[in-house]
Amino acid sequence: MPSLIARLLVALLLFYGTGAALAARVAPPQTRTFFENANFTDPKLSPDGRYVAARTAKPGERYRLTVFKLEDLSAKVVAQFDNADVGNFDWINDERLVFDTADKHRTRSEDHQPPGLYAINRDGSNYQQLVESGYSPNNGATSFSARHLLGWNHYLLGQYGLQNSDSV
C-alpha cells in the first residue's frame, strides 16, 4: 500500500510540475488581439424567428452581412464589399434587410464618408442602393439610378417598426 501512495504522490508532483512548467512557457496574448475586429457581431433574429443575420469577417477582411438559416444552420453571405464594411443593419420583414456601410479600419473621427443605405433579400437577391454613399461600394450588383437615390445625408435610425412591410 505505501508504494501505491508513493507512486500516486510522484504522479501528482510530475503532473502539477509539468503543468506549471507549461504555464510558465505560454506567452501572454499580444496587445493587438484586444483591438482587432470580432469575427461575428451583432446577431439579429428575423421577425419570423427562422433566420439570424450578423456581420461576419475573417481576420484581416472586411465585414460582410451573413444570414444563417436556423433550421439547418446553413449560412449565406448576402452583402460584401471590397472597399467598405457592412455597418448597421436591420430586418425590414421576414425576407428583406436594410444596411449601411462603414470603414472599421478607421476610427470614427477619421471616417468622414456618408454610409449610404442599401436593401437586400435574405437570399442575396434584389440588391438596391437607396442612399448615396461616400464609399461607392462595388459588389457588381445593380442599384437605383442616381436620380432615384436619396441624398447622402439620410441615415438608418435604430427605430424598430412592425417589420412586416417593405418600407424603411
Describe this structure in words.
The chain has 168 residues and is α+β, with helices and mostly antiparallel strands. The protein has 2 domains: 30 residues; 117 residues, no CATH class. The chain is built from 1 helix and 8 strands; from the N terminus they run H-E-E-E-E-E-E-E-E. The strands form 2 sheets. A 4-stranded antiparallel sheet has the order 1-2-3-4, with no helix packed on it. Strands 5-6-7-8 form a 4-stranded antiparallel sheet, with no helix packed on it. A hairpin with a 6-residue loop joins strand 7 and strand 8. The longest helix has 24 residues. The radius of gyration is 24 Å and the shape is elongated. The termini are far apart.
Keywords:
168 residues, alpha+beta, 2 domains, 4-stranded antiparallel beta sheet, 1 helix, 8 strands, 14% helix
The helix/strand series, from N terminus to C terminus, equals HEEEEEEEE
% residues in beta strands: 25-35%
Rounded to the nearest angstrom, the distance between the terminal CA atoms is 78 Å
Biggest sheet, open or closed, and with what strands and sense?
4 strands, antiparallel
Give the CA-based shape: elongated
Q: What is the SS-derived class?
A: alpha+beta
> What is the number of helical segments per DSSP (H or I, 4+ residues)?
1
The poorly predicted ranges are 139-144
- Indicate the mean pLDDT: 76
Q: How many strand units?
A: 8
Gyration radius, in Å: 24 Å
For the largest beta sheet, what order do the strands appear in spatially? 1-2-3-4
The tally of structural domains comes to 2
